[in-house]
Amino acid sequence: MRIGNNPHKDKAILQSDYLHQVVIPVYIPHQEGYFKDSLRIFQLCMQSLLKTVHSKTCITVVNNGSCEMVIEYLDQIYHEGHIQELIHTENIGKLNAVLKGLAGNNIELVTITDADVLFLENWQEASTKVFRTFPKAGVVGVVPQFCMYKNKCGNILFDTLFSKKLKFIPIQSSEGFIRFYDSIGWDRSYNKDYLKYGLGLEHDGVKVFVGSGHFVATYKKQMFQEMKSYFNYKLGGDSENYLDTLPLKYDYWRVTTYDNYAYHMGNVFEDWMSEIEHNKNNSTEIDSGFKLHKRAKDSIVGLKSKIFSKVLGSEFVSRFFYRWKKLPKTMIKNYSTIAPIVK
Predict the structure, then answer these.
(1) Do the domain assignments include residue 296?
(2) Does a structural domain hold residue 11?
(3) What integer is the mean pLDDT of 56-76?
């Protein structure tokens, strides 16, 4: 039996005060083998995040089937008020967990990050500055990587091909590059020219690299308005490609901050990870109201992202492109070889 009316019926939801959401899916099923150090690394991730975000940040953690010790840690930081949302699920897959975290709010920017990222000071301010300076940016990474302009960046290259703003620029933090590739198990036999120059854009004194990985990146939330509800992979498959291709449907650019603002820790703890110092972020420079795009026509997306990318990727055209965009002549031959892409 029901008596009376629910007092909340037909009442509109008040606009959220949050301007930025961070979604972290975490899967640590036990603390053995591959996952031996994972809880410790996740705790470092959370500590660095809490110290580097501004007060209008909503932190959402999705426990994707982790063990009891992880659940206890998450429940504790939630009840202490350090995070705003906590979702417990069985292991439903990484991207399905992300989708759960994205639903139910309308916060303008959302950072999707792995649970093994060590955030550095000013990453949030640097990201929002890029969104403000480059209105076409839809995805902003904070960890530069090798040759990411070769991955789903046909539209930005098409749009800026004849602009002097598009050119090869000196690497700001070669240490950041080296530490990232060390963290994913590469030896250091890769082309060292990739540590010296990368394809970038400069506007109003702000530099970015073309392209972005997706282990940590910030997105305009608008592009998730029509998001899929389920992916049939726990990891990989077409699930991660979804985050790469979604911005193209709105003709948004994928870029990365010029400097390095986070480290990828991997699954093995190293002493340096606990030695990084952070000051509490008390920033009052909180940005919002970024320019949004309408859904792009499929023909435009296909022209820029598929046809143009294929032409520019040919050996002859790419070498001409490198010369035109000011890559040092001594690097052109080796630079034109296909570099492995890590996202």
Answers:
(1) yes
(2) no
(3) 98
Q: What is the pLDDT of residue 296?
A: 87
In this prediction the pTM is 0.91
The DSSP line for 238-302 is THHHHHHHGGGGGT-EEEEESS--EEE-TTS--THHHH------------------PPPPHHHHH
Is residue 4 in some structural domain?
A: no
Q: 179 is in which domain, residue-wise?
A: 20-271+292-335
Q: Give the alpha-carbon dihedral of 55, 82, 140, 20, to 10 degrees.
A: -50
Rounded-to-integer distance, Cα 251 and Cα 296, Å: 6
Query: What's the whole-number mean pLDDT along residues 221-249?
Result: 73
Residue 264 tokens, joined: 């990828």
Domain assignment present for 299? yes
Q: What is the pLDDT of residue 7?
A: 63
